[in-house]
Amino acid sequence: MTSLLALFQGQEGATHEAAQGAPPDLERMLMHHLTDGNEIEFEILGRGFTVHLPEWDPIHIGQLTLDLSPTKHTVFMLIAAALLVLVFGMVGRVMQRKYRDKAPSGFANAMEAMVLYFRDEIVRRNIGQGADGYTSYILTLFFFVLVMNLLGLVPFGSTATGNLSVTGALAIVSFVVVEVTGMVKLGAAGYAKTIFYVPPGLSPAMGAVMLMIMTPVEFLGKLTKPFTLAIRLFANMVAGHTLVLSLLGMIFMFTSLTFGKWAIAGASVVMVVAFTLLEIFVAFLQAYIFAMLTSVFIGMMRHAH
After folding, report:
1. pLDDT in tens, 127-179
2. What is d(CA 77, CA 82) in angstroms, rounded to the nearest whole number?
3. CA atoms within 13 A on the CB side of 220
4. For residue 20, is pLDDT > 50?
5. pLDDT-based confidence at 25, cuts 50/70/90?
6. pLDDT tier for residue 2 given thresholds of 50, 70 and 90
7. Which of 14, 76, 87, 220 has the CB geometry, 3.0–4.6 Å to 24, for a possible disulfide?
8. Nearest to 163 by CA among 106, 241, 89, 220
9. What angle do CA 164, 126, 287 make, to 5 degrees?
10. How far apart are CA 132 and CA 181, in angstroms?
11. Residue 67 C-alpha from the chain's centroid
12. What is the signed CA dihedral for 192, 198, 200, 206, rounded to 10 degrees?
């Protein structure tokens, strides 16, 4: 809550506008929080700080220009990865040192229970034979997406999964895993049938007609899977933060009222707290759905029949 209040109060020009009696620019404040950028803002003991990230010269490859400068979302992706390496590295060492021959307790027990749940109920149930080889990837997807989602809810944090480039990259990696899995499992001829499919029992003429109809449908079906993964995660994260920030912005939009502004402020804070709790649930839910659908797509490809 402190970070959100600081966001609305600390924008350049917002205080001046309020002093002149004009409402703050809510749209600019929303976009400042939701979009990526080359600055990270935070506050320590009431004093605000801004970290300007380095900007490197872009790389030109023919007509393609690549800007590899770090951004706010890149930094929070790296923070999420570092947290996962730290936490699971510590859990792994504790498991090897103390619980090699007995059941773990405490946090290690909770992590073991979650890993076993994903292995048994998500990976094995959806992928079937040979599923254990995909457990590490599915778990990595779940925890990586989850931590990125939750980092957007901490003070002065940012949600990297609210960036379509981030969710798109995750979806493309899953798409590559799914398609390569199909090529390895089914072979060239079997994989080709997942695109050029003719139902058995048809005459040559009807088979040719069905081939013309089903081929673009099957091909588009392959492309829509990563698209839905990327859009679902991105849209849910952006929508949740937009709603929370918009409700909080009501406090500053109605500061000029003579009567009723404290009632509006109280109602706004109550709604923001409620929707923030909902956002925590959505953060877990969307990470779970992303990992589960990836395992479902892998299982569908490995068992195309």
Report:
1. 888 888 899 999 999 999 999 999 988 888 888 999 999 999 999 999 999 99
2. 9
3. 5
4. no
5. low
6. very low
7. 14
8. 241
9. 30
10. 14
11. 22
12. -160
Cα 171 to Cα 224: distance, rounded to the nearest angstrom? 10
pLDDT at residue number 258: 65
The owner of tokens 């929070």 is: 76
Which residue in 2, 3, 4 sits closest to 243, CA to CA? 4
**Which range has highest mean pLDDT (42-56, 113-127, 134-148, 255-269)?**
134-148
What's the Rg (C-alpha) of the chain? 24
Contact of 188 with 194, CB cutoff 8 Å: no
How far apart are alpha carbons 249 and 302 in whole angstroms?
49
Cα gap 128→299, rounded to integer Å? 7
Does the pLDDT of residue 13 top 50, yes or no?
A: no
The contacts of residue 16 (CB under 8 Å, 6+ apart) are none
The 3-class SS string of the chain reads: CHHHHHHHHHCCCHHHHHHCCCCCCHHHHHHHHHCCCCEEEEEECCEEEEEECCCCCCEEECCEEECCCCCHHHHHHHHHHHHHHHHHHHHHHHHHHHCCCCCCCHHHHHHHHHHHHHHHHHHHHHHCCCHHHHHHHHHHHHHHHHHHHHHCCCCCCCCHHHCHHHHHHHHHHHHHHHHHHHHHHHHHHHHHHCCCCCCCCCCHHHHHHHHHHHHHHHHHHHHHHHHHHHHHHHHHHHHHHHHHHHHHHHHHHCCCCCCCHHHHHHHHHHHHHHHHHHHHHHHHHHHHHHHHHHHHHHHHHHCCC
* Tokens, residue 237: 């994260």
